[in-house]
Amino acid sequence: MTAGAFFNSRWVDAPSGTIERDPAVLAEGFRAGGVGCGLKSGGTLDLGIIRCDASEVSSAVMLTDNAAAAAPIWVCRDELDRDSIAGVVVNSGNANAATGPDGLDAAREVRATAAEALGLPERSVAIAQTGVIGVPLDTELVTAAIPALAGGITVEGGVPFSEAILTTDDGPKRCSVTCDGVTVSGQAKGAGMIQPGFATMLCFVQTDAVIEEPDAVLRAAVDPSFARISVDGQSSTNDTVVLQASGRSGRPLPEGLLEAVMLQLALMVVADGEGATRICRVDVTGASSPSEAESVARAIGNSPLVKTALLGRDPNWGRIVQAAGAALPGEDLGHIGSESIDAADLADGGQEAGLAIDLERGEHSDHLYFCDLTNEYIAINSEYTT
Amino acid sequence: MTAGAFFNSRWVDAPSGTIERDPAVLAEGFRAGGVGCGLKSGGTLDLGIIRCDASEVSSAVMLTDNAAAAAPIWVCRDELDRDSIAGVVVNSGNANAATGPDGLDAAREVRATAAEALGLPERSVAIAQTGVIGVPLDTELVTAAIPALAGGITVEGGVPFSEAILTTDDGPKRCSVTCDGVTVSGQAKGAGMIQPGFATMLCFVQTDAVIEEPDAVLRAAVDPSFARISVDGQSSTNDTVVLQASGRSGRPLPEGLLEAVMLQLALMVVADGEGATRICRVDVTGASSPSEAESVARAIGNSPLVKTALLGRDPNWGRIVQAAGAALPGEDLGHIGSESIDAADLADGGQEAGLAIDLERGEHSDHLYFCDLTNEYIAINSEYTT
Question: Fewer C-beta within 10 Å: chain A N or C terminus?
Fold first, then answer.
């Protein structure tokens, strides 16, 4: 138990009575593990597996809508029983994206090998892959490592699994929390190429709660979390979020628990955005429609001028007006002035800065979490090669 | 005459026989000048005026569609005879944007003062302003300097005028070129906050050609030039392009001359993008519609991952696929692979790199010119304060 280590954002409200546990310990009914199969050098962990041992698992998955979606996305879209995902196999070090028919075959082969090793039907195993785009996957390396990995998964496998899924992340994003007799464990990765259409990056959540409508539950938790973050406005070819429920606790999800876990994981992804030093929540109010509120929030959060102002601690509200105005071409925001904007936190706030703009056009609102744009982002991305 | 000094891009085709002249010399029928009025410190030029002395001037103007458009934009939109602009007054050092009703009054007062000093009706004088957003304009400084400036404009005023309109630009962008007895002179400024809805930044072009339909002529020249560049995907509150024709040559515009001038000026704006070290033209072919081609071109040119690959000389075609796919959510670009993309120039090209992607979905195409994203962009924008 490591109280306070996981929920550390002022923007996250965990249900009262929530206890943080060792993140290695998965929700009841789950086992996991991670190994280095050789996609990354030096034995770095790069292959992970999760298995749900419950006879009836309830699950949901959300996938990127990028038109250049990777091979594993196509397998999960078309060849997966999305409501009963018992197994998950993930590799880092290669995204298997833009790899054509051979890539699709490779994803199927990895998934089939994992299914066999786990004693599960192929259609109940999800696959996710992350890393460099456009390079053929060395399928042999992956499939050779799967049997031993699958044979060695444990109920305390959350730590190696969370490390096996990382790419340019500074560190793992993981938790195991308990409330009202229900445990939720989760592991995520992110860093760059992050702006969800709905979600972003990879995130896996396990719970022993009983979940009747996993799709609706997952969507409701993703909408205010992974769907509301941006590192660089780029949506990945491989974004995947998987929720699995074993039902072993015999109880329903405590209200707000899954939302809190996913928001904290999402904020960890933003905070660990490539080169990020600060994160910011922008609140847009007074919009004339929900889509207007969202587009203004995204325009502000993805503006390189706002992101560099966040870095430079400059309460430059003119750039915020410019970004808002650019999101509404042909409209009139001429009434917006300094009194419509609270940008003080840009200068004075700490690691988590708040920013607000009132469009004074209606009753709708939205928000987005984003990070600053730094020299480190440029160094990482101008030196990271194909 | 400084042959070859202006037209220096491989992407610009000037009509044969075009001669480059001293950029100070305006097209016949025009006078201009620039002074330092005190908006910038140390006597730096920050106020410019152009006057057409022809009895019948033909003109057109294009303005930003940013919803938070600046006060001078509103004056030009609503209170200007756009087809007969004889005078232009421009200041740098203050954008007069997000300044509310007082800002609108300030813009009107500056414009009225210029009109009086030039002996022109107010409605035939355009106003443009650029610089910091959200700071009240010191109108007094500007109006006090106008009479002497207006009294001192000359036919060789292109140089001081082109310098008076700059902000974070590294240097002026200006020309005076002659072909088939027609002269076109032009002055532009840019640097950051640059992605045109249609145009970007400030650009002023004077010609002694006879132009019957100035709106159509301007639009046709802006569409492949200022509407096809991006520095940072940000559209300004103040973008303005003004074309004025004195008709003094008695001849029509030589085919391609205005387009060549505006494209070269636009490329100079990209090349002088904040922190830019290289520029790139991305060509998108095989799109299923014109808007699809444009959105893919913009997604690629504005992707921070592609822009850092341009900096890092990394032919990272995976990032190009990712950006293209993100522009077409829910579509299928699964057939796109390395053979669909020519990214060799990213690594091997010089100052002007070419990049091409064939979407293999249809017959439409588009292109965009953009620059790389560098530490210098971040330094400029995290240190430039309100």
Answer: N
